[in-house]
Amino acid sequence: MTGVTDMTDVTRVIRVLLADDQHLVREALAALLGLEPDLEVVGQVSRGDEVAPAVTALRPDVVLLDIEMPGRDGLTVAGDLTGVRVIILTTFGRPGYLRRAMDAGVAGYVVKDARAGELADAVRRVHAGGRVFDRRLAAASVSTGANPLTGRERDVLRAATEGGTVADIARRLHLSDGTVRNYLSSAIGKLGARNRAEAARAAEAKGWL
Amino acid sequence: MTGVTDMTDVTRVIRVLLADDQHLVREALAALLGLEPDLEVVGQVSRGDEVAPAVTALRPDVVLLDIEMPGRDGLTVAGDLTGVRVIILTTFGRPGYLRRAMDAGVAGYVVKDARAGELADAVRRVHAGGRVFDRRLAAASVSTGANPLTGRERDVLRAATEGGTVADIARRLHLSDGTVRNYLSSAIGKLGARNRAEAARAAEAKGWL
DNA sequence: GGTGTGAGGTGACATTCGTCAGGGGACGGC
DNA sequence: GCCGTCCCCTGACGAATGTCACCTCACACC
After folding, report:
1. How far apart are the C-alpha atoms of A25 and A19, rounded to whole Å?
2. What is the CATH number of the domain that holds B95?
3. Which of A144, A163, A192 finishes a domain?
4. Chain A CA closest to residue B36
5. How many C-beta atoms surround the C-beta of residue A120 within 10 A?
6. Is A139 exposed, middle or buried (0-12, 13-18, 19+ CB in 10 A)?
7. What does the DSSP 8-state code read for residue B192?
8. CA–CA gap between residue A15 and residue B18 (Å, rounded)
9. Are B89 and B106 members of one domain?
10. Chain A residues 159-188, Cβ below 7 A from strand C
11. N or C: fewer beta carbons within 10 Å in chain A?
């Protein structure tokens, strides 16, 4: 309304930083948030390792973080950010992701399947000091429970998804063949699967990978 | 070709229909396209099987179609649409998808990694009668070549990705165990893989699945 | 009519997998 | 100090997998 530059006005606006590897989606989200008068997208980055520098440079109030990004994983990035509120914004409604996000101290978790208004709302609530987590996902997280896999079991299972034989995995992880088979067998048992492929699918679906 | 009323240049505005299963992305894309004065998003659907009815009801000039949608596959939907220009808009830059899209007669293929201006441009060019295909993807498509898998090999490989043993797959497809093993072996050979998991990954990455 | 290709099948074989029963060592908690 | 857990390894065994040779049948194409 006032055409005059008013610096106090700036403090009213919530400064948002967007991190998503898909240009089009990022720009589109910026356009969407730009429709809200009290929100301002002050920056956009496409890689995980660009988030921290951008935060220092732009001093946003809230960061919207995708999980799957080149350079650095969104959940890892979130764990290291300080002095800014973080909302995870991702395609994947995997219970394990939510848990990891909460452990990383994020203030919100919104899936890309949410309705348009929810995102702006989440930004406002989080900026006001609240926490916003997808309800269905929170419920699923409780029923799913904690990740039953040990660190090594996860490593081996993750390596198994890349394909290759037991010998390949063993070489990649500097283990003996038998050890790899044991970890795989153990993981298969814990996940109620019938072979490594099924186990990998199950673990991935729950965000335990 | 319908010889009915040709609506000369009634509309200067290009009518766009959006089909994407993720609410937030869809709304965001609508906001982005809404910024262009010559484009108008006249409708949005979230499922593949809602596209055809929406086209009849809303008569858009251009349809933006995601590939992975519940209800019906975007590529399949594209093949059945008539009287409207189709642009595939998807996350996946898989050569095989591009090929299938071209076979389905679509007018454009844009990946979600594209820059914001490219989408609006693509809509305009396509509406004007042109064709717009992602350059890098087109190149990859040429080098990748055609899908070497036979129909049955694809079926078996697809079933294999769901997990389960050979016997399970055989039961699901009403085949004998030996036949399933033969198809898998053949597919593994053609794809240069070393087991079914590697083969499935390779096929999926190229969009041959 | 011959030829090629894809679908579907059988039987045999070597290899790989998944399982089980052990054997260590390191570390943290009560 | 003992117990539990995770790490790492070995060896053995049966079941599942991947490969190969070879078979019929249908269909399209020249």
Report:
1. 10
2. 3.40.50.2300
3. A144
4. A31
5. 17
6. exposed
7. T
8. 29
9. yes
10. 165-167, 178, 181-182, 184-185, 188
11. N
